C-alpha cells in the first residue's frame, strides 16, 4: 500500500492511504494511518523516482530500509574475529572481513581469487547490522601496533 505522508510526530509518520489494499477489509484509500520507519519498504519521490532505485537501499527486518553494506560471512554472525576494512575513501561502511579471511587474502596476494571468494563469501547487511558486526568483532590494537 502507498501512503501520502503529510506529517511526522516523534518517531512516527502520518498520512493517508493512496490506494486500495488488495485484501478486503476495513482499510481503504483515504484512511488516515500512522507508522514507523521500519514499515517503509520504498519511497516514491515527487520526481517519480523510487528511493530504492536512486539510493540502492536494502530492507532489514530489524532496522528498516538502509544503505547496503558487505562483510565476510564470518563477521555477519561472529564475535571477536578481528575486523579489516577495504580502503574506500568516502564510504562509511567499506567491504570488511575477519582475521581468517584477511590471512587468505594475504596468501592470495591481496587478489580476489576463486579461493579467496569461496572462503570469504561476501554477505549483504544493512548499515546498522554492519555497525553491530564491526562493534562485535573489532579488537583494540596490540601494544606493539601502537608505534
The main sheet orders its strands as 1-2-3
Number of domains: 2
End-to-end C-alpha gap: 57 Å
Question: Which parts are unreliable, with pLDDT below 50 for 5 consecutive residues or more?
Answer: none
Brief summary:
The chain is of the alpha+beta class and 147 residues long.
Can you walk through the features of this model?
The chain is of the alpha+beta class and 147 residues long. The chain has five helices and nine strands. It is elongated and about 65 Å long.
Task: Summarize the SSE layout with pairings.
Blueprint: E1 3-9, E2 12-17, E3 32-36, H1 51-55, E4 58-60, E5 64-66, E6 68-71, H2 73-77, E7 84-85, E8 96-97, H3 99-107, H4 114-120, E9 123-126, H5 127-137
Antiparallel strand pairs: 1-2, 2-3, 4-5, 6-9, 7-8
Amino acid at each position: 500500500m502507498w501512503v501520502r505522508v503529510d506529517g511526522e510526530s516523534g518517531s512516527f509518520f502520518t498520512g493517508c492511504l493512496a490506494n486500495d489494499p488488495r485484501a478486503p477489509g476495513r482499510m481503504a484509500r483515504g484512511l488516515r494511518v500512522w507508522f514507523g520507519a521500519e514499515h517503509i519498504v520504498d519511497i516514491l519521490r515527487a520526481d517519480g523516482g523510487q528511493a530504492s532505485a536512486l539510493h540502492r537501499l536494502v530492507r532489514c527486518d530489524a532496522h528498516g530500509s538502509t544503505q547496503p553494506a558487505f562483510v565476510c560471512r564470518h563477521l555477519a554472525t561472529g564475535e571477536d574475529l578481528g575486523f579489516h576494512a577495504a580502503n574506500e575513501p568516502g564510504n562509511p561502511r567499506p567491504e570488511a572481513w575477519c582475521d581468517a579471511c584477511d590471512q587468505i587474502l594475504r596468501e592470495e596476494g591481496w587478489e580476489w581469487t576463486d579461493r579467496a571468494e569461496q572462503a570469504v563469501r561476501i554477505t549483504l547487511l544493512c548499515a546498522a547490522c554492519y555497525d553491530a558486526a564491526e562493534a562485535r568483532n573489532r579488537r583494540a590494537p596490540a601494544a606493539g601496533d601502537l608505534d
